[in-house]
């Protein structure tokens, strides 16, 4: 089943539920190496996204939906996450196709999001940031696209890679953001932004599976 605006809307609804369910977990992770507000910010931001996408004048294209997500997160999410995720979804909206997504489109949208995050935050792989989840996700989607896989398979691979990338932040020493002030004390903790990234991409894949199972 095609990945289109209905999929993008279902994706964002799923992210809203996931952020609510994982609010306390993200707060705890951020409390260990940051300000402790990541879970609250993400929950508030995606609750606002759901409200914006439920409005009568909400966009009816995937690109429009992603652009609305970007603007909403920028205006409602505090700390570094708002500008980073806002820029990610804004760049993603510009890369989104007019119609249904192919596997190459999935890769291009994720790559655009990553590019926005790195342009804004200047982080590289190994800095113990959300980039450590985004880079493997983009790489995995690219491999699937080049192999001729479906967009659903590309999303599944990206989600798995993001989860693995988030887990791999635990032994790293933070080199960017507030966590970097802790030096070696940041070792042994998961990066909350990488974890929230893995949750977001997990919901992208879940929404695609749901569409495939029930196209109505």
Account of the 3D structure:
The chain is an all-alpha fold. It has a single domain (5-213), classed as DhaL domain (Serine Threonine Protein Phosphatase 5, Tetratricopeptide repeat). The protein contains nine helices and no strands. The chain has helices spanning 5-21, 23-33, 38-53, 62-76, 81-95, 103-121, 131-146, 151-167, 192-213. Helix 6 (103-121) packs parallel to helix 8. It starts with a helix and ends with a helix. The model has no long low-confidence stretch (mean pLDDT 95).
Major sheet summary line: none
- Supply the helix-strand structural class: mainly alpha
CATH superfamily: DhaL domain
Count of distinct strands: 0
CATH topology: Serine Threonine Protein Phosphatase 5, Tetratricopeptide repeat
CATH class: Mainly Alpha
CATH architecture: Alpha Horseshoe
The Rg value, from CA coordinates, equals: 16 Å
As a percent range, the share of strand residues is: under 5%
What's the helical proportion of residues?
Answer: 55-70%
Q: Identify low-pLDDT runs.
A: none
Overall mean pLDDT stands at: 95
Order of helices and strands: HHHHHHHHH
Number of helices: 9
Distance between the termini: 10 Å
Question: Looking at the structure, what is the overall shape?
Answer: globular
Integer tally of domains: 1
């Amino acid at each position: 089943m095609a990945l289109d605006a209905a999929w993008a809307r279902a994706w964002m609804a799923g992210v809203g539920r996931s952020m609510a369910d994982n609010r306390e977990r993200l707060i705890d992770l951020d409390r260990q190496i940051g300000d402790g507000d990541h879970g609250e910010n993400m929950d508030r931001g995606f609750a606002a996204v759901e409200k914006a996408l439920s409005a009568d004048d909400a966009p009816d294209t995937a690109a429009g939906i992603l652009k609305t997500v970007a603007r909403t997160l920028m205006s409602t999410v505090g700390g570094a996450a708002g500008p980073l995720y806002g820029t990610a979804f804004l760049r993603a909206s510009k890369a989104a196709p007019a119609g249904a997504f192919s596997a190459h489109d999935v890769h291009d949208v994720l790559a655009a999001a990553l590019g926005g995050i790195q342009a804004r935050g200047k982080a590289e792989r190994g800095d113990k940031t959300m980039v450590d989840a985004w880079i493997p996700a983009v790489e995995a989607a690219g491999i699937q696209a080049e192999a001729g896989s479906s967009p659903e398979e590309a999303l599944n691979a990206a989600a798995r890679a993001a989860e693995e990338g988030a887990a791999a932040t635990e032994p790293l020493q933070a080199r960017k953001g507030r966590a970097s002030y802790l030096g070696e004390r940041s070792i042994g903790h998961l990066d909350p932004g990488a974890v929230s990234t893995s949750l977001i991409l997990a919901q992208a894949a879940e929404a695609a599976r749901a569409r495939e199972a029930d196209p109505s």
